[in-house]
Amino acid sequence: MFRVLRTTRGGGMETDFERLHPRDSAEEDDDDEMVDIAGATLDFSSTDDVPPLGAGGLDDYFGSSSSSRAGVTGVTGMNGSAPKLVDPLDDPLPGVGTYEDFNTIDWVREKSRDRDRHREITKKSRQSTLALLRSVSDAFSGWLLMLLVGLMAGALAGGIDIAAHWLTDLKEGVCLVGFWFNHEHCCWTSNETTFQERDRCPQWQTWAQLISGQSQGAFAYIINYLMYLFWALIFSLLAVTLVRAFAPYACGSGIPEIKTILSGFIIRGYLGKWTLITKTITLVLAVSSGLSLGKEGPLVHVACCCANILCHLFTKYRKNEAKRREVLSAAAAVGVSVAFGAPIGGVLFSLEEVSYYFPLKTLWRSFFAALVAAFTLRSINPFGNSRLVLFYVEFHAPWHLVELAPFILLGIFGGLWGALFIRANIAWCRRRKTTRLGHYPVLEVLVVTAVTALIAFPNSYTRMSGAELISELFNDCSLLDSSQLCGYKQPSMNISDTGAGNSLADRPAGAGLYTALWQLALALIFKMSITVITFGMKVPSGLFIPSMAVGPSRAGCWVGWCSPGADCITPGLYAMVGAAACLGGVTRMTVSLVVIMFELTGGLEYIVPLMAATMTSKWVADAFGREGIYEAHIRLNGYPFLEAKEEFEHSSLAVDVMRPRRSDPPLAVLTQDSMTLGEVEALVESTHYSGFPVVVSQESQRLVGFVFRRDLLISIDNARKRQEGVVSASLVVFTEHAPAQAPEAPPFTVTDHTAMDITVDIFRKLGLRQCLVTHNGRLLGIITKKDILKHMAQIANRDPDSILFN
């Protein structure tokens, strides 16, 4: 902590906190201050994501491993009167311990604050029954929060599924019984459907029937074509307009930003209420427009928004950034749980793919929240089939050992497709960011939607939604199946009593099946090319469903029928394995992906084919680049994210990375007891650093501690308001500990000869913002997370200035 020594009474320099430390734009009503992040124009005006944390005085505020306590005590005046003590424990300093937008949290400080809070609650619980009840309530609050997150996310996911299904069918027609019914629900109660045309009923009218009274012919086809294009453009226009007008953060998948936030980065408003409302509405519109995107990735963002908003109801999570990120990790599991109906896969997805800090307690709560969310979605039953997803399948035929070779080939194809897709998509997104293309997001969305609709309508496999396509390809053909992919010829010979010759394995492929396979091949080419352009536009866009659709399309082209008299293989199984391989090649998921896929199929006997294809896909894709699509977008957008999967193999030392370099000006430091308030304010005003090391003196450079810029300025401003006689000539004294408090933890330091691979591991495992470099106790420099990321970018021959934020 530090003290401000009074030298005179009255007068003095004006308290100019706003001049030294401009008001955070997130606290103002200025909607014009924008920044381009993740390919979207983002507004700092919302404070929903990270509201100001609690007052956090000396007892609550533990500086980072390299931070001092930021309390202020008044001291003796010139007349020798008794000191006026301003105790932060009794009168906390508002704002101390909070973080600015686009800054990294201090994990050590947040965990220390939570530990001190828990110790205080435990200590008081032994003193009275009321305190004991408060302790029990505090312990139970985490489970109650998980319950609320699961209920809210499950309800929103159910509403999104129902609305998206209805709007998708609205492009083709309307139900006369009630316009709010989708095609399937409209024909449920009809008694006039046939087996071959089970999707046609008098209650459902196409737009051609409504407008011209005709259901067949060229004129009817043109009307349906134009109405399909019209509704697609309307939906996409509404989606991109709402995103730009109300919540620019609502665009994209959201998973790269969620990963960055879970690593400790602050992005105000990204998980706020306006982002939640806008993303929920625009996700329905974007999926319904027919664009090659899915809703599974954005559902993770939606669930995390729900968790962040509900965290405001509980002081323990509202005032502690590290505790809040534990809840967000569980929310990521909830998002996958409601997206695929796979609670266990969701927990593993959060652990494997997005979480930065995942203690055992978070694992249990993630499991509970995913369970509640899946139960809520099952209760809503959005698809009317008592399943959590539209493309749930159940295979019964066993697989043969000889089929392991084509499973591995599917894995190779998935890996090649994943590597190709990542490179192509990143190149297109970089072009969007660096050229005039990025200045016209609405026009881009409309053009892509128009091209997608024009090409997709003639082909039934591209016209249907991604989930319906996967459901069609996952389908296990039976004798009563009317799908074109099950179009086998009827046997001409008499069927024996035993039914010999009546199985699908003994039937030759019909003309309809060959037509379907050609359409499927064209759909594969179209999906592969259009998804590259679609992912990353200014609308909510997920990647799971498009990637999964590519795999089954490729597998369907391989194994669409069986040879007469031979053991019939299961095309649906190959489609499922191909989907897993392609999704694994794009995202580099392994364990969680296999669990999600077998939760979808309800069978454990296909784990080996899934594991073989997924692992092969990852190996092949890693041979072309170790980054998955989310890590690639994190690097493209310059987020300060230290990837735990990436190994640091360079032999550099801490002295090679630290600042100041040889050509840089000396390190800006504060002395322990020899600087005046005016000198401190001048130093702060002339620099833009987030914090300053505190040394004994300029000559010795012996390290005392570290103080954050924000905490320093808030404390100075508080001293001017609460103490008399504080002027620019007042002496500022930093002490090692607060009065009557335990000594402050020493700052985290490394020596100048510490290997950088060890330093990088320290930053990753402790979540440090900065680390001080010393030589025999003498301060030499400082290493920040941004310095490490720049150094790693230089080693990889990338532009170090691509790391955008502090």
Automatic annotation (TrEMBL):
Q: Which residue intervals define the domain CBS in the entry?
A: 658-722, 741-800
Q: How does it sit in the membrane?
A: Multi-pass membrane protein
Q: Which domain of life is it from?
A: Eukaryota
The residues that cross the membrane are: 143-167, 228-250, 271-293, 299-315, 327-351, 404-426, 438-457
Complex and partners:
Interacts with NEDD4 and NEDD4L.
Q: Which family does it belong to?
A: Belongs to the chloride channel (TC 2.A.49) family. ClC-5/CLCN5 subfamily.
Cited function: Proton-coupled chloride transporter. Functions as antiport system and exchanges chloride ions against protons. Important for normal acidification of the endosome lumen. May play an important role in renal tubular function. The CLC channel family contains both chloride channels and proton-coupled anion transporters that exchange chloride or another anion for protons. The absence of conserved gating glutamate residues is typical for family members that function as channels.
Q: What is this protein called?
A: Chloride channel protein
